[in-house]
Amino acid sequence: MSSKPRTRRAAVLAASGIAVAALIAGCGSSGGSKSAAPSTSGSQSAPASATLQTATDPKLGTIVTDSAGFTLYRFDQDENNPPESYCNGSCAVIWPPEHANGDVTVKGIDSKLVGTVTRSDGTKQVTVNGWPVYRYSPDTKPGDTKGQGVGGTWFAVTPSGGKAGTGTGSAPSPATPSPMPSTPGY
Predict the structure, then answer these.
(1) Average pLDDT, the chain
(2) Which of 116, 128, 144, 149 could be stapled to 161 by a disulfide with Cβ–Cβ 3.0 to 4.6 Å?
């Protein structure tokens, strides 16, 4: 009889893993969408202003973080000229946009490269060189870079809007997660 609860637990864990994998994979697929249902909470929690700063990661080099030190990422399926965010709906739950309803303060970043874009839900999202920037929900403490390389489309953003860890002479870290298997439980 003890195998019955174990089997049920394994089935629940497998189903949960598949559901989360589908959410994350959806954010990295080519099926990004310009439209999403309007968010009722997004504009209410958006700060009046945002602060971007630089940090040095031992594997990725100089990256951009928010005021609390959390890594900010760019999505290869977004556009930077003109800026357009394609991570909406369930994607924006895993990859919350860096919002700002007012001024964006910068430390170590050329202020001319920082702006905002209006998202499909009407909120303003911070951009770096036109690229909309996001946090990654599984990054639980300042300095985490768990979102680096996810789905082959998400990268920590550099102060110039580039992809961290992918420049000349700098290959992605071997610890960079592949789309799903190396991020268990997400």
Answers:
(1) 76
(2) 128
